[in-house]
Amino acid sequence: MIFAINEINKNEDLLPNLSLGYAIYDTCNSITRAVEQMFALITGNEVYVPNYQCHINSSLAAVIGESSSTISIAMATILGIYQYPQISYFSSLPALSNKKEFPSLLRTIPSDTFQSKAFAYLVKHFDWKWVGTLAEDIEYGIQGVQLFREEVEKYGVCIAFAEKIPLTFSRATYQQIAETIKSSNAKVIVVFSGDSNLLPLVEEIAKQNITGITWLASEAWSTATYILKENQIKHFEGTLGFAITKSHIPGLHEFLVGLHPFNEPQDMFIKELWENIFECLWNPGVKHDRRECTGAENLEKLTNTFLDTSELRVTSNVYNAVYAVAHALHNLQSCEQGKGPFEEGRCADIHAFEPSQLLHYLKRVQFLDKAGNIQYFDENGDTVPKYDLVNWQRGSDGSVVVKTVGRYDGSKFGVELELDVEAIYWNGGQKEGLAEGPNRVGSLLAVTGFEMESFQK
């Protein structure tokens, strides 16, 4: 987010003579904390008082966040009252498309409604008739599986079993789920879950030596290969999943390696990042076993996930959210009096606009992202529903790598599901595909609704 804001402030063609500022808050995955921070932002006072604002003109333009759908709902309930625009980059719950309940919420991640349809198309394409489902025991998991079930049953597919992954550790439940999988004839299992809650179940599946399963991963864990230990890879290699489309953000890597606590001494996030990456402490104390951070540590010499900008997915959603706000502000600033969208052709004042006026422009914003794709919000405040179909494959060193083997486009004019079948790596190391897979004329197949067309490469 900071990188995007700095980039915009240096751009003479976008918001000329104006600079964007920012304040970053950590919700700590707490609804209570998020609500407190929302009131602090709206009122302009750390000690918040509902419906009281200590500044005549608020400097708050919009809020970017949150990732959790549950927390985004709490935030949207408050922000919607005052019509402050909110853009979430990872909250995919279908309920958030309801503009009567959440009038000022927009998002740069597709609704799970489309992900469930994408899974249904995938199951139909391979003619899988017997499928199991696992749902994390929260709305994300439960609604995702329910929507998938509604879609897939249209194609005559049967649900072999439907289990819930607990939010709190329960060895007995993990053992029971693993036993259900082991005893079922279903060899395809759709899993709507976050990555962290999957860890105990992954361990149990490996412990019971369950293999030969084609796992279908929702976007919350479809690229999270780090959840696997070396001895668990054989149980989950060949996983297929839908992921947020990846993109490249020029200049981001250079920005990241240039971060240093000495350059931004008040930035607590950089200090915390430094401690985690280099396993040191700025003030370790006498009894602590970690060494002291010196500032001589060098980010450029590291190779880790923080500095890897080759697989940007959620990050690009944040980036596009910031640019959406900037373009909306630019359009508001560029308004000609007498031709404005408000009563009697009035324009909003860029230095004293109402939250609802910026929301008006955000709902109608259109711009090209760095990849040349058009970004906009539909009537529900949702982004264009596109996903990459990814596949967990063995790398040359035996590790798991994420490969893109297809795409889903749920926009009105897009080909809905495109597959490179021959590129798929199946559980057990097969490259030729499952026996019950389709007969293929070409290696690239496109599935649109009930129609299937074949294309040669």
From TrEMBL:
Domain Receptor ligand binding region, first and last residues per copy: 1-394
Keywords: Cell membrane, G-protein coupled receptor, Glycoprotein, Membrane, Receptor, Signal, Transducer, Transmembrane, Transmembrane helix
Superkingdom of the organism of origin: Eukaryota
GO terms, molecular function: G protein-coupled receptor activity
Entry-linked InterPro entries: ANF_lig-bd_rcpt, GPCR_3, GPCR_3_Ca_sens_rcpt-rel, Peripla_BP_I
Keyword tRNA-binding: no
Pfam families recorded: ANF_receptor
Primary localization class, coarse: membrane
Membrane association type: Multi-pass membrane protein
GO CC annotation terms, alphabetical: plasma membrane
Subcellular locations according to the entry: Cell membrane
Protein name: V2R1 protein
Organism listed in the record: Polypterus senegalus
This protein's encoding gene: Vmn2r1_1
